[in-house]
Amino acid sequence: MAKAVFHKHQRVFVRPVGTWALIEQVKPHWVKGMDEPVRISYDCGLGRDFSTTELAEEERDETEAGNWRLMRAKNKWQSADECAHHPFPGTFPIVVTDEQDWGGWRVPGAEYDRDPQLIEFQSRLITAAPTLMTLAEKLADQAEKPDELPDDLRTLIEIARNTLKRIKSRPSDTVNAKSRAA
């Protein structure tokens, strides 16, 4: 007998199509005299019904972001005089995401030279990302009784939840394995 693996309005990865979709309808297939359905298909609004094996649920990535910080590196290719128009002449920002000052985000010197103000802003934004994520998590957790909240706050909570869902969601490993094999 078949049991439903997914539920209505759940976000799933549809393998044959290669896209994410919401389950619009769960369709059990009954046989007379049986207590449970013999199989279950799912309508994802993509033109046909899909079986359980063709769908994959999203996985949550609960990785801790850590302590990200902004460091400055010496510009090897330009002296401080050659890049006097930069906010910090002779250096460029590096966002470090590891305790040992490894890893993270760096930008090529030519790209930094093209728009140093933008790169400085991006480096500050990336450094603040773990704090902003904590803020979004706390905001999303505040909605125990959403009907009692003002509309503006409900909108902010929904934005926070959607953003966290995008950050923490990734296709399941079986989907990744199938896409590598193809």
Cross-sheet strand order for the largest sheet: 2-1-6
The radius of gyration over CA amounts to: 24 Å
Rounded average pLDDT: 80
Which ranges are low-confidence, i.e. pLDDT below 50, for 5 or more consecutive residues? none
- Give the percentage of residues in beta strands: 15-25%
Can you describe this structure in just a few lines?
32% of the residues lie in helices and 23% in strands. The chain is of the alpha+beta class and 182 residues long. The chain has two domains: 11-57, no CATH class; 69-169, no CATH class.
Description:
The protein is of the alpha+beta class. The protein folds into two domains: 11-57, no CATH class; 69-169, no CATH class. Helix content is 32%, strand content 23%. It is built from four helices and eleven strands. The protein has helices at 109-114, 116-141, 151-168, 173-181, and strands spanning 11-14, 19-22, 25-29, 39-43, 49-50, 55-57, 59-60, 69-74, 91-96, 104-105, 169-170. The strands form four sheets. Strands 2-1-6 form a three-stranded antiparallel sheet, with no helix packed on it. The longest helix has 26 residues, at 116-141. The chain is elongated, with a radius of gyration of 24 Å. It starts with 10 loop residues before the first strand and ends with a helix.
